[in-house]
Amino acid sequence: MSEANAIDPTDPAQYPRKVLFVAGAGRSGTSTMAGLMQILGLHVPLPEVAPDETNPKGFSEPQWVVDHHDRLLKEALVQVSDSRPDAWFETGRIATREPVRIETAEWLAQHFSVNNELVVKDPRLSWFLGLWRVAAIRTGATPVFATMLRPPAEVVGSKQTYYANKLGSAHLAASWLNMLLHTERGTRESVADGGRVFVRYADLLSDWTKTTMHVGQVLQLQHVLHADSEKIRAGHRFVDPSLRRMSQTLDDLGLPARLHDLVGETWNELNKLAEPEGDTADVHATLDELREAYTDLYAESEAISRSTVVATEQRLRRQGKAAPSGPGAPGSPADASTFAADRVPHGLRAMVPPGMRRGLRKMAGRERG
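Given the sequence above, the corresponding structure tokens read:
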């Protein structure tokens, strides 16, 4: 007997505990997916992030999760759209700390008193997939994952339009590549038990009922499988096919040749995962090769950008000497939030290899404990 047939659909209290984690790069349709799941009956823990001009229909994001991720990313010195392969080691190191795991699980547990099926979404989520998997299991829930896929050129264009991002197309494309390759690897553990799906944003906009029903069936989300006609009508009112306003292609971004090729090849392989029976070992192997190739490309880029690293170090020293001295003085080590390093653009900080970053932190009096 299947899980769905063993459950009384009229009694949500019988539904097994489950947490749907909606992952993917920002501006890839994660809000639309999470919003639909919320409409169909899954619970977004309150309070939610308030809508704004970049997303007037709402984000369907728990505010606590956003704040939690922001704190952890700040501690790891990792940006939301970070292109460094090493950034995953930094966030992973923090996510394995027991106090962080306890805090995350305790927050999650309290929301099952409202609904046995939760949806947690945040563009920062992919950095902490392991943390949330452990949190769900500790609360007696099954973690499942839906990763949104949108053409990388559209993601880049949307970020540049709505977030006024000035880091350039190459950085944004590289950060998309870094995010998606590691998100795929980080959710692969759930393949065996049918605990992950990949969803094209275009499919969600063109036929959301078919697409969400597929998600519900694969992940056995009972609120989706037993949604009534009123919720379906609400879903139709929520989805706006015109949301896909970006039409640029990868060729429009003017990326370096090797980065262009890696992004295109990765997009082709990720699309295979969204096909029926497409989540195969062969695709996994190809994505592993692409992830290694990107890591090599980034290392090569670091190797030829040493002049930028040296210039950054010199600028830190010059600004550090010019800054007022004394405990608590603006720019002093005791006032880390205003230290010169915080004024260096992320594009420069991201180029600094881990070993040299540690040296700069030591020089700045900002060594980690």
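The longest helix spans residues 281-303. Try to locate this feature in the token string yourself.
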